[in-house]
Design a protein that fits this description.
With about 400 residues, the chain is α/β, with parallel strands linked by helices. Helix content is about 40%, strand content about 15%.
Length: about 400
């Protein structure tokens, strides 16, 4: 019954939107920002908001819009202006916004009037797996006609309507051009990578290690991408049933921390095996802060690999399944394009871990050759550049 009432409410606001959108004028320097389909605040949107307050020189009003009422209360308590998407205030601020920043889907915020509002796509990480128009496999069980109806009612803007796609290098600019059918791609860097340069890394490292009781331990983080956008089987931490390796970790003072993609959180089950192998949910620790404390990163086809390049520490790509055939095609044409070594099973994975611990420099030196290819800027000023570019573009309107 609750879901029916909510759907009726959304439909009611959709009708209002389609009537009043022609009569509400744009408010200069009002920006709205969304994230994670309107449900959470993470990644580039989160860090854009965080650093926005340090670079705001033009009296811009930045408003977070969410479809999660409980989350809005949390955001407001942190001093961030936020409104519910399905409220009269929320609808007004969305329709009168000069700029809309998104990072996950076109419908991070509903009711955008793309004919009046400038759209900026921060996206949620540089991709290895094919995305949007390049992803020709229909992995999400949703009716296409239903999706078209939703877009008409809730905004009807497309990726072609985006005025600015933010990328980290020319390599990803070319990928975005095909993926979004849009050539408006600008190399400015990711807001979420600014943390690696602007913050006290020693302090963050200490905070994360305290969280996991890992003060003097070697932290190995396992951060895989999703499987079929959350409809597939969530990756399990490596060595889950291998107590020989668990004993080895304890003897070597190693802790493996697993954190699945946010799309897989409905399959989350807490794991703690002898404080040597732990799995946490998405909210337990910020991913960028976990990366700062991480000594060795294990991932697969996740864009978090590119973020970790900023820290210059070893990376292992763990390809335990037939992801390319069973899930998604990727942009890489050869294994040489992956930053880091590749393991295909637990035996090769533990072998690489051993080698890294013994000779870490052999692995970090390889990454330097790929850093500039994937990340043009290494300065912690990405949010500043994005902010200045938006101000520059809107001043021409």
């Amino acid at each position: 019954m609750v879901h029916i009432i909510e759907d009726i409410k959304k439909f009611f606001f959709a009708i209002i939107y389609n009537i009043v959108k022609h009569y509400i004028s744009i408010s200069k320097n009002k920006w709205v920002i969304g994230s994670d389909g309107g449900n959470y605040l993470s990644g580039n949107s989160k860090y854009f908001i965080k650093y926005f307050y340090q670079v705001n020189k033009n009296n811009v009003r930045l408003i977070f819009i969410s479809k999660n009422k409980l989350f809005i209360n949390k955001i407001n308590s942190n001093g961030i202006e936020a409104y519910y998407n399905y409220s009269l205030k929320g609808l007004y601020h969305v329709l009168s916004a000069e700029v809309y920043l998104l990072s996950t889907t076109l419908l991070d915020i509903n009711f955008i009037n793309h004919k009046k509002t400038r759209i900026v796509n921060l996206w949620h990480g540089m991709p290895i797996k094919k995305v949007v128009y390049d992803n020709t496999r229909n992995q999400i069980p949703i009716n296409v006609w239903y999706l078209k109806l939703v877009h008409i009612l809730l905004g009807n803007h497309t990726w072609e309507d985006v005025d600015m796609n933010i990328v980290t290098s020319d390599y990803f600019g070319k990928i975005f051009q095909g993926a979004f059918n849009n050539s408006k791609n600008i190399i400015l860097g990711q807001p979420r990578d600014d943390v690696f340069y602007k913050e006290d890394l020693v302090k963050i490292n200490r905070k994360v290690r305290k969280l996991f009781s890992a003060k003097n331990k070697i932290i190995i983080s396992y951060l895989p991408t999703h499987r079929k956008y959350g409809y597939g089987k969530a990756p399990k931490p490596p060595f889950l049933n291998n107590y020989k390796i668990i004993d080895y970790f304890n003897n070597k003072n190693i802790i493996l921390i697993a954190k699945n993609h946010i799309n897989m959180q409905n399959q989350y089950h807490p794991i703690n095996i002898e404080d040597a192998l732990i799995e946490v949910n998405h909210d337990f620790v910020d991913t960028q802060e976990l990366l700062i404390a991480t000594d060795i990163l294990i991932s697969d086809y996740s864009g978090v690999i590119f973020d970790f390049l900023h820290l210059g520490k070893p990376i292992i790509c763990y390809h335990y399944d037939d992801y390319i055939n069973d899930d998604s095609e990727i942009y890489f044409n050869s294994s040489d394009e992956f930053p880091g070594s590749i393991a295909y099973d637990e035996d090769s994975l533990i072998e690489i871990i051993n080698e890294i611990i013994e000779t870490p420099d052999n692995y970090t030196s390889i990454l330097k050759n790929l850093f500039d290819k994937y990340m043009f800027f290494h300065d912690g000023l990405s949010t500043n550049r994005i902010y200045d570019r938006i101000i520059e573009d809107t001043s021409k309107d």
